[in-house]
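Following up on my earlier thread - several people asked me to post the actual chain instead of describing it. Fair enough. Here it is, all 987 residues.
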Amino acid sequence: MFRPMWAKAFVAAAVVATGIVTPTVASASPSPKVIYAAEGGTGQACSQRLPCSLAGAQKRERQVLASGEGKHKDVVVELSGGTYYLASPLQFGPQDSGQNGHTVTWTAAPGAEVTISGGRLLHPDWQPVDTGSKIMEATVARGLSVDGLFVNGRRQILARYPNYDPTASRLGGSTTLADLNQESAKWADPSTALVRGMHCGDWGSVSFTVSGRSNNALDLHYVGDNNRGQDCGLSVGNGPGSVGPVMVENVKEELDSPGEWYYDGTSGQLLYYPPAGTDLTTATVETAEQDQLITLTGTSVKHPVQNITFNGLHFTDTHRTLFDSTFQSDAKGDWAIVRKGAVYMKNAADITVTNSFFDQLGGNGVFMDGYNSGDVISNNTFESDGATDVQIVGSPDAVRDYSDNYHDSVPVDDTGAGPKSENYPRDIVVKNNLMENMGQFELQSSGVNISMSMDVTVDANTIDGSPRACLNIEDGTWGGDSIENNDLFNCVQQTGDNGSINVWGRSRFWASSGNNTLAAGTSFEGSTGTQLTDSQAKDLMKVDVVKPITIAHNRFWHDGDWAIDLDDGSSNFNITDNLLLKGGIKLRDGFDRTVQNNLLVNGSIFEQVSHSNDGDVIQHNITLGGQAYSNVLNNPVTAKYTVDDNVFWNDGNVVNVNPDGHGNQLLSADGTTINAQSSWVQDGMDVHSLVADPKFTAADPAATYDFTVAADSPALGIGYNNFPMTGFGATGAPLPPKAVLPYGPGSGGGTPPPPSLITQPEMLMGATATNIPSLAVQSSLGLTNDYGLYLADVPAGSYAAQKSLQTGDDITAINGNQVTDDRNTFWQPYNKLAAGAPITLTVRRGQSDVTVQLAKTTQPEELNDTSGVVYTNTGPSGSGWVWRGSATGGAQSYLNDIWATQNAGDSWSLTFNGTGLDIISETNTDEGDVNLAIDGAPYKTVSFVTPSRVYQGTVVSISGLQPGVHTITGTMVNGNYMIVDAFLTHP
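Reply from S.P.:
Thanks for posting it. Predicted structure:
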């Protein structure tokens, strides 16, 4: 949840929160050279009695290192307590490096609270703007770059619309762009406004500056803070495209709520609406102005800045980089980044940041850019920072055949392995940090982001409260990472379709279109200048992800489908010994993922869009609840993945699997045994698995977080091994929510869901079509919404297959008309086309759009009651037409569904192109007469009464119409029911 106001703590408080004790600098032989600094220090020798300023201390440190003294001992710069307001970042280069194995340490004095601030201390003379007004004003310096104001250590709210709502799920409260445009008519100067909004697919945020207002709308300019802006029609500098909910800030006229403020840089006027109880005569007022606090930049890979430690410091009050910096697309992932941080490192080695506190930052906490080696970020607390707490991001020049956008497929012409240059982080350690509520302003943020890097260890951190993933791996280069012993919960709080750990593979074998190619003249595994086969793609993956990535012994609580989200080609992973209290595991479109010895308390394993012979292994896991797997667009027979020796338990209730993504098949027939007759088992899956009580040792494992199984557990007999149920997260950190055991006949998909209009099948040219049936399918297609007519099955030999349509296609437009989540947006224009008419379909296939051109079939077509029919109610509100599926009266009718009404006067209508049609329906003694009209003219009254119930009977056959478009309408005259089942059109 977005929280712009919080108490500013000190390092000492952070140390207590994580159970970390700040060490004193260890004695060395000889004793370290100590240089003393103080806020306001003026000394020259930097002694304890006459300390220097920060700049003076750095000058003295360099003198010591240059003199040779620093070659034989550690150098310590000890800072006395106080707040050090920086007019510019403190810059470190090779001349500041520890020498000959010795370290330069910048540290807080024992027991001191040392704050490094990117703002300034103001001394406002507050006066009411008008007599009796609650809004106060003061004149401060002009021309300041201020976008953060702190009063008594609490971030205040930049004047905004709508007003801040702490209970809002997104943006602290939001509205529509249309409403915002209307509201902006009140503003004298719209160009001060800053707009933050949601990506159209809910995949992070998109933000805009404003240049003015024209044509009753704001002139918006996209800043580029999301690498998937193209999905919303956005390009940098242009707008508004298609966006989700929005809010606006930095508008003077919107200052109308306690805690809000506004600064006019031209006049120096500072306006503030103090919350009740604020004494401005004694209040401390500070700004946020600097983007960065400390920068460490070597001159090259061969001449890095190195061997420097920062210990026990409080970093705070940096300017937001959201609107004042250039965003860069980050490889082929969804992120765009600003290469800045409160602590920034480039061409750096063996830099340590420890026992420190990062809070109320406007942007990133730590940024490792390009070449970094051996850096350690440990024992810190990160709280409520504006963007990502720790960014570990290499340079594009280190990536072979680099592509910076999801939609671009760069042909492979360099088949070499591993990094292309040295400009990437390696051997990085992020350990025992508490990271909470990051991404206050940039919603494409995480506790840790890893991109274009190798051998990164993320160990024993607690990460919670992220608007997106708690830990993100942006791309498929170059592996070797170890994600272990972390506690990850309350992730993906303001966005959608993401995991607590999110990974995008998107390396060279992968393309959004579902395939990639070799450049002309390039040879790889016996092929030249061609589309990669699955076998070649798998081999190419191995030269990008040169080392496996391990996700081991982590604990998750994720309020969504997948806590571990291996998306879009993520490959070469070992996932083992993880405790998933809530949420499942997704394996999409990649190779060589081993999921072994994990315990899923309340979640499924998702296999999506599998390649042939993909090398996946799913074994020795325990899954609780009614839904073992939830699979989309994969064939386990051709994928040849290994799935066996797993244990499933739903407290004696049924356990299901839906291997094809649109139907449920029983994995357990009676809740106690595997159903060997299910197609899942017949295809070789879970042949030796068990449906059995795993026998936890704890009486209430959910209450104690302890899911250890007993010595006589059947899980141990088929290869599962107990792993420690402790040791997750930072020392002394908060715990995740407790698990809820998902047992029961209706829980977790334990029984097949009742039929719904979303999953109701229709027949289109021999293919089975539905709406987008689930988030899993939507995610597999990379769609921003659930629009389209989804082809769940296109049988070989069908007319649809002959015309190049495929299983898993989603038709998003027909002859230029968009298909929404209302399937009639497809059927109504389709039904108006004559037999043999040309059709142009826009189809989402894989994760890109393709065009399919065909002619409409010349054969008669049977249309379901959902395929373009319009239903009109005349009765009281809440009565009238009802859709009935197979379990509620539709069974045995065409496609096992009907529409029915009991109100005389209700009507249906169907517009079609042809010379006639048959009306097919259920008939019975309780039905009555229906008045039919064609093209608005009465045709005849037809009786739907038969002595007994008849299904799919032809009630009337109409022929001899002039070729063309006609509309037939039926209106209920009498009887207890009028039922609509199907229509057979005559070309």
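Residues 465-725 form one domain. That should answer part of your original question.
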